[in-house]
Amino acid sequence: MHGKSILLIIGGGIAAYKSLELIRRLSERGVKTRAILTKAGAEFVTPLSVSSLAGEKVFSDLFSLTDEAEMGHIELSRSADLVVVAPATADLMGKLAGGLANDLASTALLATDKPILMAPAMNVRMWESPSVRRSVEQLKKDGVLFVGPNDGEMACGEFGPGRMAEPLEIVAAIERALKIEGPLAGVRALVTAGPTREPVDPVRFLANHSSGKQGYAIADALARAGADTTLISGPVSLAPPTGVKLMRVTTAREMLAACESALPADVLVMAAAVADWRPDIAANSKIKKSTDRIVPLIKLVENPDILHTLAHGPQRPRLVIGFAAETDDVVENAVAKRARKGADWIIANDVSANLDGESVMGGEKNRIHLISETGTEDWPELSKSEVGSRLALRIADKLKGAA
Ligand code: CTP
Prior knowledge:
By secondary structure, the chain is an alpha/beta fold. It has 2 domains: 5-177, Flavin prenyltransferase-like (Rossmann fold, 3-Layer(aba) Sandwich), CATH 3.40.50.1950; 188-402, CoaB-like (Rossmann fold). The chain is 34% helix and 25% strand. It has 14 helices and 23 strands. An 8-stranded mixed beta sheet has the order 12-11-8-13-16-17-21-22, sandwiched between helices. Helix 1 (16-28) packs parallel to helix 2. The protein is elongated and about 85 Å long. The model has no long low-confidence stretch (mean pLDDT 92). The chain binds cytidine-5'-triphosphate. Cytidine-5'-triphosphate (CTP) binds next to helix 12, strand 16 and helix 13.
């Protein structure tokens, strides 16, 4: 156990509710949280919810004799390995940048001798205002670390930078700052995701409905667990996960070449829905309906099987994981596929299933069966990000066992 702890300062903003999940996620990872709730922060979350999750009382008042008797404010500011401000408001950043201290949070920030990580959250106009820009610049010069803010729609209805980073992104930034090694530290992971597109002519292609969400969630979870992760992605419209090396490809042949260039790796997760066939020749110019009177026949040729090739190649990763997107006889087909492809594990799912009114392909949820050398595990219905996190832990166990 690393025994690390943080002092979390919760500022006043609607994003304060996310700090509750942050505390929970940190405690799952063995990081202890001691919290200061500002007066404005207490308008958004209650001291009781914060203390229930943190497992100890919340500090809030600089001039409280009881608090001072329990722990002096200077000692409090130095009691943890890192001070995290989430949400970091314009007020808290401005005070620290200007050297002001008139409450417990700003006093602790000035008095600490530990690194500080800010997760700003505010309206986009405020974030872009010249005075907040000045505070941020000054704080960065002073060595303060930042995570976010992200772009997106805000509680006030405006769009742009200002949304607080998600709890898991803040956890990753905290782990980096605390140099905590995840269970996959030192492991090299290669993940593929999304569809491939096989051109017919410059404006048309063959593809499939893969959204890339499951592959991206797996790459994200592996990176958060400390793996050096490369994600090779077909054309999708997803934001690259933080801390992952992203290589974009279009066709199956490009995906194979990119995978080969990214080897060696300890683990390969082939989540991409690779097109099995491609048109034998892609026309150089658009096939015209008016001039080419006859209906064009597209002759298909087989694409390389990336999973099979890499599982039988000279640089075979220690753990090769394939997917089986099936609509019938899901488990039987997947068991056969495991042997045929030379994979160690197959993650099988029924892509015709409807989960919460959404199709598995493109939806947020997944229900998978993990087929390994020891048999079949049926996982419950989970979000794709939960499937990613659970898989990362299973991979860590397997690689540790094999080491
Ligand atoms: N796969 C691959 N290269 C291909 C086709 C598939 O690497 N040309 C990989 C996929 O990434 C997945 C696994 O093989 O991890 C199974 O893909 P799937 O489409 O289910 O299997 P197929 O081999 O295409 O078998 P079938 O279409 O007959 O079910």
